[in-house]
Amino acid sequence: MEGLPFTPPAGTDEGGHLGPPPAAFALLAADGVLVGWSREAEALLGYTASQVLGRRAADLLATPHADRGRSEGRRPDQRLRLGRTRGAVVDVRHRSGHTVRVAVTLRPLTPASDGDSTGRVPSAVLMAAELDELRWWETRQAMLQGLVTQSPVTLTIYGPGARLLWANAASVRELGGDLTASLGRSMTELFPGDVLSTQHLVSPEDFVQQILDTGEPVIDVHFRGRAPADPRRERVWSSSYFRLLDGRGEPVGVCEQSIDVTDHYRAQQRLALLAEAGARIGATLDPSRTAAELARIAVSRYADAVLVDVAAEVLEGEEPKPVTAWDLVRVADSDGGPSRVGERVAYAAGSSQAESLAGGRATADAVVAPTRLYVPLIVRGTPLGLVTFVRGEDSEPFDDGDRAVAEELASRTAVCIDNARRYRRERTAALMLQRSLLPRSLPELSAVEAASRYLPADSHLGAGGDWFDVIPLSGARVGLVVGDVVGHGLGAAATMGRLRAMVRTLAELDLAPDELLARLNDQVGKDASDQNVEGSEGSGAVGATCVYGIYDPASRTSTWAAAGHMPPAVVQPHGPVSFLRLPPGPPLGVGRLPYEGAEVALAEGSLVVLFTDGLVEARGQGIDVGLGRLAAVLGEQRGSSSDLLCARIVADLVSGHVRDDATLLVVRTRALDVRQVASWELPSDPALVARARSMAAEQLGRWGLDELAFTTELVVSELVTNAIRHASGPIVLRLIRDRSLICEVSDSQHTSPHARYAGNDEEGGRGLFMVAQLTEHWGTRYMSTGKTIWAEQALPVP
User: What's the order of all strands across the beta sheet hosting 777-783?
Assistant: First the structure.
């Protein structure tokens, strides 16, 4: 038949009957007259036998189909010449008027002695079928033949008990080429393996029986196993199942359609492995833990065992030495064999491991099982260590795809180990810098008993910018400060050092807390502006917080101011735990809003606790919870020493992973005895200078400090004289016997005195110069009511 464009006939059910279409039969006499007409012919063309018998068959043809016969000038009906079997495609008129294209075959008959009523003898039989239906049936037949003999998809039929009933050619090849030997054997016997993904029964027998019972198909079940034809190679198949029914509608078996997806499955597994490695490896910034993460990920999914060796100097945060001088350390061993984590590892010259390290490429040992693949850990062309992947004799050797995965895993691990090395080096440097900038010890003062703790964060962020200080001030007072620089690392530590130095410098100017924070804020803003002009990305102090307070043991009062920092906790003797209510101030460097101070009376023996947010913040809970826990510890341990109280607070509030730096400063206030302080209020009268000298000398005699009387009288004389000369109102003279002898003169003026060199012809101007020469320290502090000029002398050694 001629090759014509073909589409399934209208109304054809693609899943319907596979048998051939019904054929129409007609008998022809030698002259082409119809002498026989079957019922199938009547169904095909609509003519009854009485309507066509006696007519020529050619009369039923419609416009003939163009073919080679027309070009040769022959009549269409001449193609069906009698005498031999012929086939053709012709267009025939249906009784209703439309054209039916049919495939016809003309087969000659042995002449008979009798004929029809007209005496015509049948000479040939004409068989016809609708062309589209015939083509559709032939296509299905070809499809079935291809599935059985040529399809690369394996088709297997299993009966009850999952036993083999039939297999196509592709399946027979999987079975080893002998179908007879496999018939009747179960699926488990033929293909031992595992079901990788299914929501159905795991047992093959139950699996097949379930489909036989329910009739519901199962699509895309992945099996991993070994085929009888190649038992050494593990493979993966994607299989689908559907039930087969006989002519009576009874189930006869389950057809399995399988495709080998081993390469696709392995590619997916490799991608999944690399994705998991990217998410899990290097999360801790610890070289040993990074190596252990690589081993955990690779074992069972990629290799049977993994060994990781890293250069000793890399573990210490140093740059690796040349390969020939390496001293490797085993940091991960999933096998748990004789070599243990932490042991030194040395590879012999010429070994596969040494070649891999020296050449910077992966090498494999595959002579005997187990198979080993050695992959160097390389960053920027520098080896950091070596990874050994091991597969046992039951596993397949490493192929090119496996080698690529191993190199990618090693590359990612090497980057993470190098990051951990650099982090450790920077963290160590930052901690060293930070600890060198923090007070090594707290001073022994009469004003307070102090203790402190600093806990650096153990996260990947590195050292932070927390700091604290206890600053001795004039008049036996003390400055207390705790601050926190936003950020971590060397930049934060350096910024912390600058801030601490600035606070100490400003504190020694005897500035009030609010004034100190205002000047500190101005300086921080200038630093940030300078960094922006220079285009630097260094860590500035923008966002730094600070709380600063001054405690006076003579008056038992304290003054506080805060710059975006949490207020200190205070425990008065026999009183509740409270947190100071300080006027809010912006963090340093954020704005130029004014800072306000607050004065708080502190009885002798009061506890004052300054801290950073790292002490009271915890994952998953509000800061109020941490503050409540701090208050509970202070309430229970109020009678403990400052150092013991620090230890208890840290033990109760900080446990396990420290997410941020935590700084704690605990002070217990002391008070000066009234016998240590002598104070006199003097009118502004020059005649009283001598009286002031006399009162000071008498007080020194009562304290047993007669050795200091001459110098003290001179200091008192100069300071009181200056106050009378340049100020107005009452003048206050105060002597404090503490760890040194302090002489203070206060007046109501804010003018600042200056020591200077007086000329030879000048009668005055030498007073403060003499005071500076005769005392250890002197200075001026300002208050809202005026100023105080003070001078300190060392006490005589007993």
Answer: 677-682, 731-737, 740-747, 786-794, 777-783
Closest CA relative to residue 328, chosen from 278, 384, 374: 384
Dist CA 243 CA 255 (whole Å): 6
Pairing of strands 251-260, 371-379: unpaired
Q: Give burial (CB, 10 Å; 0-12/13-18/19+) of 622.
A: exposed
Tokens of residue 276, six digits: 């998991």
Angle between helices 262-280 and 287-298 in degrees, nearest 10: 160
119 in Cβ contact with 55 (< 8 Å): no
How far is the first Cα of the chain from the last one, in angstroms, to the nearest whole number?
A: 133
Contact 653, 616 (CB under 8 A): yes
Question: Residue 26 carries which DSSP code?
Answer: E
CA Rg value for the chain? 51
Cα→Cα distances 81→30, 35, 58, 62, Å: 10, 17, 12, 18
Helix (H/G/I), strand (E/B), else coil: 14: coil
Residue 216 CB burial class (10 angstroms; 0-12, 13-18, ≥19): exposed
**Is the distance from CB of 745 to CB of 789 less than 8 angstroms?**
yes
Q: How many residues does the chain have?
A: 798
Which helix or strand (DSSP H or E) is residue 719 part of? Answer: helix 709-726
- The 382-391 sheet, strands edge to edge: 344-345, 328-333, 305-311, 382-391, 371-379, 363-365
The interaxial angle of helices 689-703 and 709-726, nearest 10 deg, is 150
Q: What are phi and psi of 748, to 5 degrees?
A: -95, 5
Q: For helices 490-507 and 513-534, give the axis angle rounded to 10 degrees.
A: 140
Instruction: Look at the block and give the residue holding tokens 């503050």.
Output: 627
Q: pLDDT means per 10 residues in the chain (798 residues)?
A: 36 51 85 88 88 88 54 42 68 89 85 58 86 80 80 88 87 85 84 68 74 87 83 84 86 89 83 82 82 85 87 82 70 72 82 85 74 89 88 81 88 88 75 70 91 76 76 94 82 82 91 93 76 47 83 94 94 92 89 87 94 83 87 89 91 74 92 92 87 93 93 91 82 93 89 57 60 88 86 88
Cα separations in angstroms, 754 against 114, 304, 325, 765, 778? 156, 82, 66, 9, 11
Q: Closest by alpha carbon to 42, among 116, 96, 115? A: 96
pTM (predicted TM-score): 0.57
The count of other CB atoms within 10 Å of the CB of residue 280 is: 14
Cα distances (angstroms) measured from residue 543 to each of 136, 311, 462, 589, 595? 81, 40, 18, 6, 16
Residues 6+ apart with CB under 8 A from 784: none
